[in-house]
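Q: What would this chain look like folded?
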Amino acid sequence: RAGELDPGSAGAMNELAEVYFALGRLDDADRALRDSLARAPGNADIHVKRALISLRRKDRAAAKALCDKALALDPGFVGAHQLLGTIAWEDGALEETARHLLAARQSGPPVSDPYGLLAWSLFTLGRAAEIEQQAPCASEGQLFIEVMLQAIAARQQDESELCRQQLLRANRLFASLGETPNKGVFSPFLIVLEALLARRDGEARLYDGADGEAVESLYALGDDHCLSAAHLPVEIDGTLHRIRPSLVVGCKAQHLAEAG
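A: My prediction, written as structure tokens:
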């Protein structure tokens, strides 16, 4: 009724669309948004809301096309970048994920990224150093994920002091966090990394090679378990090797599936 009384305003139809969307009446929600778009054709947010409807319908191509329309109207529109970044993450397109989520993060006000998809994408691409360069996080839970990934990256590069600094930050955050995504995932990393640092400090001569002895690399690929052996010295055929961990995304997918 409000839309009928004020035919020049898109606000009432947007609110009606949100109600329909919450009720699962997707056709009605889309119809209301089309009406709203006719009243405000330059409103990028309407395209993103329609993209969410397309995602609910499992039409990812339509959702991406609608986000592209939003960015054509406003190249810095945060909602469109966030949604495109999330879709790209689910598709395994990490470069595209990072590109869109970086654009959202650099837009100004803190942007919510509760699962740390930007940090995960940069970490997996080998660009963890860029995490520290970003604008402030929207929450301590998000910051905890970013700090932990930086600690793991430092450990992978055998940068013990940087790893130690990030773990101190992570412990302070962990103590104040309530329930937050990935807190349980990262809590074992805190213990493992601290133990590895202690061993690294106690056996520096073995880790760094004895008397200038060459140290070869032995790469271990896997999920978080591969970190347990990070940089440990191993002798193979008389040559000293050091285990270098490499986290591989998706290793646990099988046993999380119903058929696993």
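The chain is about 60% helix and 10% strand.
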